[in-house]
Every structure is written in structure tokens, then in C-alpha cells.
Amino acid sequence: MITQKELKKKATRPWSTGGFLRQWLAGETVFPLEIPFSKPSGRILTSDFGKVRDWIAMLQRHSSSVKGSGYRLEYKTVNHKQLGQQRLPDRIVFESRDDWLGFIGCKDAFRQFDEITGLTKRQLPDVMPFLSDKPLKVIEHADNWPNLIRVCRYFQIRPHPDRYIRQLDIQGVDTKFIESYKSILSELLTLALEDDDFDDSVTGLAENGFERRFGLRFDEPLIRFRLLDSQGPVTDMSVPLSQFVEPTEQNISTVYITENKINGLTFPNVKDAMVIFGLGYGVRSLKSVEWLQGKKIIYWGDIDTHGFSILSAVRHSFPQTESLLMDQATLDQHKHLCVQESESKRFTGQLNNLTVPESALFTALKNNEQADNLRLEQERVGYSFIIQALKQPEHTI
């Protein structure tokens, strides 16, 4: 026998799934809406008639015949061997949308959705599919919907604005609003703009994804590098990623990449080379630097799970990448200087861009085959080792 709580839960389902709003947008109707429920069996009537009678009274008290709105309760007469004819609830039906919305407490939400639908049809019809696909998300953002439309219309008129978000002059919309609602704006703008007005290859919000997708400026990562074969007055520089062009004053054939800042600052002189340092996982940003594809890339990182993870990421962008001092021999010679890698920060996934020896060492570290959470930080490697590793007549000066 259905309780009022169970009845409301069942009645709310067309709303909570978004099905009612989708049908309403399509011009369809779910009314009259019947709510299925289990009816008392003959055995229950016999054994607990008082409980059944109270249940019937409860349904009746909350029906439209008593409250003036809500569900209509229909009855059916049944013949019972011991109790004779009994009039039992047979159907619970919501005749109209207003009766149903009032019962589930969603009249105001539907009114908002109706207003949003009208506003969107008039001002931004291209995003109407979003209302059908995600109606509950629309209601979630009901108070902000007019501003979301204003932002989308701005981009329709001025695609690829090539400005910082702070510079967008949209009436009634401030910088904080766009920063706070990038996720839903990305979905709406994808519908509102022409295909040529955004970069569909950029997905997600990470690494300034919203700005890159819709042609906005952003605070780019700084690339710090040193020229290792230069007699000029400036050899240590930091530039935004988009300005990281190949130096013209030096013939660069080899590019070293190292995680540690002090190792970058003290990296030995190497003929026709530069060293990039201090990026960590930010090395992924280098994939957009096309001129690096034609260079010899050598990566030097920590001998730990994250060091090999970063090496794999670099090699994913630049398959020609070689590793430096990230081998078993280097680890063996410095085991007395090793520390423990933090358990919560270890990388335990799969890496697909390692050589056979690198992969074997990474697996040994991941599985703690040589010691628990073994880690050799690159700054603990003796300076003479890097000198020796680079001591090639054709590379050093």
C-alpha cells in the first residue's frame, strides 16, 4: 500500500529525470498522469482491515476532492468473501499539469523554465537543443540565464575576441561571472557559434581550455631557458609560451629539459644547445612549440615514478626524446643519497612512451622491488656525473 512519501517520489520521477520538460518542449503531454501502486490483497483485507481503512482515509484526505488540487482518487468495488463489497482505491491520476506541479512542489521551477524557454527562443535559438538535453541544468542556472545569453551573444558578434576575459565589455556581466561559469558557457557557446568561430580540438577547461577554445588571451606559462653556447650579455631568459621562438643568434641543435631549477642554472656549457628548466608536468605545454620537433631533445628528471611519467609525457610530444642519467647505473651509484617518494603522490599508472630499460626501471620503482618508494632526486646526482655524461668532444665547449 503506497504511502504519501512513496506517492510523491513516484510522482516526481517525470520531473527529476527531465522527461516531462523534454516532452513539454516537444509539444507532447504526459497528462492524465497515472501513478501505479500496489493494492491490498484479499489476505491483507482479512488480516488487517483497520490498516487498510486508515490507508484509504489517508489517500482520500490528500486527494483533489478534499484539497481542491492534486491527484484524483478513483475507486473500484470488489467482493470479499468475509467482508462483502468493499470500495478500494484503484487509480491515482493527475489530470492536469498544474495539479501535478503543485503536488510535487515544482510550480515555481516550471515557471522559470517557461520564461527561460521564451527568452532563449527570442534571443539565442541556436542553444534550444541544450534546454531539451539538459533541462534540469537550465533550471539550476535559472537566475544566471539572462547573463549567460548576453555572453553568448557577445561572442556571436565578436568571435575570437583576442582579449583577456577582464577586457570583455558585456553589459551587466563582470569578469568573475565568466570565470565562474566557464563550464556551462563552453557548452552553450559550442551551440551558439559557427564551427569556424571556435577551436573544436580543445576540450575541457584544464590548461586554459576555455580561453584557447574560444579565442581569448590568457596568462601563458613562462618558459625559462638558458643558452649554453652563447657569449652574449643575456643567456638566461623567461618568455611566454607563444613567444618562445627559436633563438636566431645561436644555432640550436640540442635542447635539454630538466625539472630542477638549480640544475638548469648550473647546467654545463654545451655546443649549439639550450636547457629548459623548472616546468615539471608543465612540459606538456611545449607540444605546441613546433620548432622543437626538429631538434634533438634530451630529458633529465628525478629517478622516481613521476620522473618517468614526465619523461613519457615529453616523449609523447617529441618521440625523438632521449633520457639522461635516468638509468639503473646512476641509481646504483647514488642509492645512499636516495629518499622516499611520498606514497600519496606516486604515479602507479601505465606509461607507454618509455624504452625497454626505462620501462624496467620504472616498473621496479613502482613495485618497490629495490626499496620502498625509492626516489633519487636529480639535484642529489653528483655534478661530476653530469659533466661526465656530457663529456663528448662534439657537444662540450
Automatic annotation (TrEMBL):
It holds the Pfam family JetD_C. Residues 5-189 form the DUF3322 domain. Residues 215-389 form the Wadjet protein JetD C-terminal domain. InterPro entries: DUF3322, JetD_C, UCP028408. It comes from the Bacteria. This is DUF2220 family protein. It comes from Endozoicomonas euniceicola.
